[in-house]
Amino acid sequence: MSSDDTGTNNARSMQQNVENCMKQVQEFVDTETTKSISLFSAKTRANEVWLQEITEKYSTIPDDELKKLDALKKDYLEKLGELTKKVEYFEQMCDELEEFQNELEIKTKVNTNRQSRMMEQ
Fold this sequence. Notes:
Elements: H1 3-57, H2 63-120
């Protein structure tokens, strides 16, 4: 056998080994892909069953009713904002009245003292 024949045989043998290796890798990939697809399908079916159970057990609110609730919420928030402003205004007025009352109290005391001094004279 010549060296060319040996080289050709080695190349052919190596080619066959590579092809066998590729075939085994492809079989492995195909098997794992099939397992993954099967698992995904099983989980999808389980989720669909679970969704159906939940849908039957819990009813959802129709969209038009949700819109009404959102509108009510918006109205209540606006009214709450108005009430908050009014409360702040009345608190401010209360503070001013308290300040005015304190000033009147001081003026009344000063006036009373002045009158009692005038009476003493």
